[in-house]
Amino acid sequence: MSREIQSSIIQKSVEVINLLARHRGRLSQTEIAQTTGFNKSSTHRILSILIGQELVEYDERDRTYSTGPLLISWARSAWEKMDLSLVKDQDLRDLATDTKMNVALAVRVEQTVTFTRANIPHPYRLAVKVGGQSELHNTAVGKVFLAHMTEEQLDAYFEVAELEKFTETTLTSRGEIEAGLGEIREMGYAVSDREEFYQVVGIAAPIFDHDRRILAAISLWVPLRNASLQDLLACAPTLLKKTGEISARFGQLTIG
Prior knowledge:
This protein is of the alpha+beta class. The chain contains 11 helices and 9 strands.
C-alpha cells in the first residue's frame, strides 16, 4: 500500500471519528457518508477498519455507529495523565445524590469540551455521552472555560468559533458572550438556560490547580420535565462546595 493511500485512509478515519465524537447521537452509514462526502464503498471500508480496531462501535439493532471503547480508553488515559484521577467517581455520585441532578465532568480539548465521566439519574436521549464533545459558547461547562481564558486565548477562540445557534436562547455574538464572563468569575459558576437543548438547563463550576489554572469543570444539568432552572440554581452552593474540595486536592487553597 502506497504512502498516499495510507495517508488518505488515515485522514478519512480521523474525519469519521471526529464526526462521531462530536455528534449528539448515533449515526447511520448513510448519514456518515453524506456528512463527510465519502462514497458508500469508502465509508464502509473506513468503518470496517475502525470497528476492527475498536475505535468505532456498531449497533446491529438499528445499524448505527458511535465512538468505540478503545477511543474512550485513550481519552481516559490522556485525562489521567492530567491527574484528573484525583476527581473520584464518588464525587459525582455524591453530587447526584445531594442535588438530585445529572452530573458530568468535562475538560477542554482545543475549541470544545469533552465529557469524561458522568452520573445520570435523569437520562435525556439527546445529551452528549461520555467521550462526546460539546461547544463552548452554549454549555455551562464551556462558558466556565471561556471565563478563565486569557485575552489571547479568547481572541484565538473567537477567530475560529462558528457560534452556531442551537436554540432561541443561544448567544451567538462575541459581545454577548464576553459580557457575561465577568459575572461567571464573580459567582464562581456558569449557567446554560436551554442554550444547547431547548428542554435542558445546566450550571457548571471550575476545578483549579495550585496556580489557579482551570483543569476541568463539573456541571449539574437536568431536563425541564424533572426540575426547573430555579431548582437547579438552588444547588449552586453544593456544587461550589464540591468543586472547592476537589480543587484543594490539586493544591488550590483559595477558592472564589
